[in-house]
Amino acid sequence: MDHLDTRQLQQLDADHHLHPFNDNAALAKKGTRILTRGEGCYVWDADGNKLLDAFAGLWCVNVGYGRKELGRVAAKQMDQLAYYNSFFSCTTEPTIMLSAKLAELTPYDLNHVFYSNSGSEANDTILRMVRHFWAVQDQPGKSIFIGRNNGYHGSTVAGASLGGMKGMHKQGGLPIPDIVHIDPPFWFADGGDMGEEEYGRVCAKRLEDKILELGPDRVAAFIGEPIMGAIGVWIPPANYWREIEKICRKYDVLLVADEVICGFGRTGEWFASQYYDFRPDIMTLAKGITSGYIPLGAVMFNDRVAKVLAEQGGELAHGYTYSGHPVCAAVALENIRILQDEKIVETCKNDTGPYLASRWAELGAHPLVGQARIAGMVGALELVPNKPERRYFDDRGKVGVLCRDIALRNGLILRATYDSMLLSPPLVISRAQVDELFEKAWKSLNETARELGMGSVGS
Ligand code: PXG
Question: How remote is the CA of residue 161 from the centroid of ligand 1, in Å?
Answer without folding.
Answer: 13
